[in-house]
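From the shared-data thread, chain only:
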Amino acid sequence: MASSEKCLGKGSTPPGPVSNGRIRLYSMRFCPFAQRTRLVLHAKGIKHDTININLKDKPDWFLEKNPMGLVPVLETPAGEVIYESPITCDYLDDVYTDKKLIPADPFERAQQKMLLENFSKVTPYFYKIPMGRRSGEDISKLEEELKEKLNQLNEKLAGKKTKFFAGDAITMIDYMIWPWFERMESLGLKHCMAGSPELKKWTEHMLGDPTIKATMVDSETYKGFYKTYTEGKPDYDYGL
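Structure, as tokens:
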């Protein structure tokens, strides 16, 4: 099997070996964590096949590859399996050395890892706020907390006075945090960036990147998927 845009679920036929000269990505079209890996694959021009997984009804053969049942997962022609989004992205940058995305300087690398660790505290808000809004909860405190965390990112950019987080060229950290900003509008969170002008500029610069343009999903499709998700019946093939 080369690629499967439609997701594979329980009872599906396991894919055969990975083709030589390629790498396989197990993904899900709307997963921001898997999108990180898709961005790196595209940015580096790596030949790959993508197989999408039904995360609600996972195939047994997929759980054998990653018992945690999460995407993204990479598989090599040698049958090596790598998972967890930061680890898959680091692996791709180490193995495919053209167009390096991770800084060579150890301190720069450490700064990116620290920023990524801090950002991991931000991502839950992208789920909590829309779910709270849907169930009629008071989400004002959560929104204020998100605004504050986004403002901290804004200050990082303001201090650097550069287009991106590590200079005037995109590096790994930009791709690692982008997927959540791509979803801002469809999740009804764009207003939370109102007090973060540098972050707004960053999103505009990111939207000019060919890799971002090539891998984006439009807001209406995201909205349609998230509606099925919040109703507890996620349609991973939405829009196909």
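The chain has a mean pLDDT of 96.
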